[in-house]
Amino acid sequence: MSNRTTAKPNDLSAFWMPFTANRQFKKEPRLFVGAKDMHYTTHDGRTVLDGTAGLWCVNAGHCRPKITEAIAQQAGELDYAPAFQLGHPKAFELATRLVDIAPEGMEHVLYTNSGSESVETALKVALAYHRAKGDGSRTRLIGRERGYHGVNFGGISVGGIVSNRKMFGTLLTGVDHMPHTHMPAKNAFSRGIPDHGGVDIATELERIVTLHDASTIAAVIVEPVAGSTGVLIPPKGYLAKLREICTKHGILLIFDEVITGFGRLGAPFAAQFFDVKPDIITTAKGLTNGVIPMGAVFVTKDIHDTFMTGPEHLIEFFHGYTYSGNPIASAAALATLDTYKEEGLLTRAAELGPYWENALHSLKDCPNVIDIRNVGLIGAIELAPIAGEPTKRAFTAFLKAYEKGLLIRTTGDIIALSPPLIITKAQIDELFDKLRDVLMNNI
Ligand SMILES: Cc1ncc(COP(=O)(O)O)c(C=O)c1O
């Protein structure tokens, strides 16, 4: 006999929701039941403008026909193929297409199912690469304060968001962190790339290298633009300086492009936008327009070729997932790349950027706004916390915006915006009119 006596068909209690205030949500549920292009439909029949591309992933907007049709067709043709020692054509076709739009020198792709898995994969590639080269003492990983690299153990170890780390023990050993790049005293209300402090703050990496000795360090991992911590844009010269220091000391540089990949900044990848070449790039989210879980890790030819030695019947890298390059995910990603190409979405943020920036910074006069920052189609509005109740002001803004038909995302007391790349100028106006309304009303 089942003892399922408490759950009713529409009971909300069984699902322990991720990164959610579960008790608040279940008292006041916010459910989406439909979506099209720039909008969601709620369970109570309202339309909500998507100011966040879901979770930074629906770059081409919702329910795009080419993608949904590709998924349906693939599901009826080849639903699953084992990923180990076997393959299917679309996974290879997709990797070739991905390498085509990636920064020069990124010639190979490993598949994952999420951003978190892409990060774990990248860290493991970095460690194994040095070992394969006979440089096995390079085992340290360097992340950054306030960094977000997903929720698995490697990712939270190199990550620097305290609440994502503090409950989970001692994490990976041999990890150190560079300082974050947020310097409001110097850079508040910057438009685009902040001017000040970039090279100095990047030079802190030299201090860490001196402390541990370069011969113990495998890789440095950063988000080119930190997203989840509340949008921290690297000041001028920062990423180039990191590249210079890593190259000098034989350390691999990993860009975690899970949110910046696939057009968010106005170029396919942040590496191209900033003109700084990492050795490894992690992606997910926009790869399939968020529709099917999939991630991809790009590596250079040198990294790949370092593993391709020894007897040919032996597995070169002991890593992979049951769903690596899954046929339906591959079909979704191919259709997503087609949609991006046909509609020029991988560079659209560059065209819309100036309009976006002006509209965003027009909120400067709203109460409690202490900083506004932007790059590509990303914006952040930092609010002064309510004394003794951090995060509450931004969360209230989130709830009020939702009531007014606008989806925003908040982290701490920061509002982060990252709409689908198909947003029109009229919809940008609508977004900021609604947000002004929220911010002007006593939150
Ligand atoms: C930079 C970065 N890395 C990794 C992740 C984790 O991705 P996922 O939630 O798909 O595991 C995220 C998610 O927001 C991210 O922003």
Which descriptors would you attach to this protein?
38% helix, binds pyridoxal-5'-phosphate, alpha/beta, 4-stranded mixed β-sheet, 15 strands, Aspartate Aminotransferase, domain 1
Q: So what's the oligomer here? A: single chain
Largest sheet: 7 strands, mixed
Question: Are there runs of 5+ residues with pLDDT below 50, and where?
Answer: none
Strand residue percentage: 15-25%
* Mean model confidence by pLDDT: 97
The CATH architecture of the largest domain would be 3-Layer(aba) Sandwich
Q: How does the overall form come out from the CA principal axes?
A: globular
**How much helix, percentage-wise, in residues?**
25-40%
**Domain tally:** 2
User: Which ions, cofactors or small ligands are bound in this entry?
Assistant: pyridoxal-5'-phosphate
Count the DSSP helices: 16
Distance between the termini: 50 Å
CATH class group of the largest domain:
Alpha Beta
**Number of DSSP-assigned strands:** 15
Structural class: alpha/beta
CATH superfamily of the largest domain: Type I PLP-dependent aspartate aminotransferase-like (Major domain)
> What's the CATH topology name of the largest domain?
Aspartate Aminotransferase, domain 2
Give the C-alpha Rg.
Answer: 22 Å
Spatial sequence of strands, sheet with the most strands: 4-10-9-8-7-5-6
Please provide a written account of the structure:
- With 443 residues, this protein is α/β, with parallel strands linked by helices.
- The protein has two domains: 22-64 and 344-440, Aspartate Aminotransferase, domain 1 (Alpha-Beta Complex), CATH 3.90.1150.10; 68-342, Type I PLP-dependent aspartate aminotransferase-like (Major domain) (Aspartate Aminotransferase, domain 2, 3-Layer(aba) Sandwich).
- The chain contains 16 helices and 15 strands.
- It has a seven-stranded mixed beta sheet, with helices on both faces. Strands 1-2-3-13 form a four-stranded mixed beta sheet. A four-stranded antiparallel beta sheet has the order 11-12-15-14, covered by helices on one side.
- Strand 1 and strand 2 form a beta hairpin.
- Helix 3 runs antiparallel to helix 13.
- The chain is globular.
- The structure holds pyridoxal-5'-phosphate (PLP).
- Pyridoxal-5'-phosphate (PLP) is lined by residues 114-116, 119, 148-150, 223, 227-228, 256, 258-259, 284.
- Pyridoxal-5'-phosphate (PLP) binds at residues 114-116, 119, 148-150, 223, 227-228, 256, 258-259, 284.
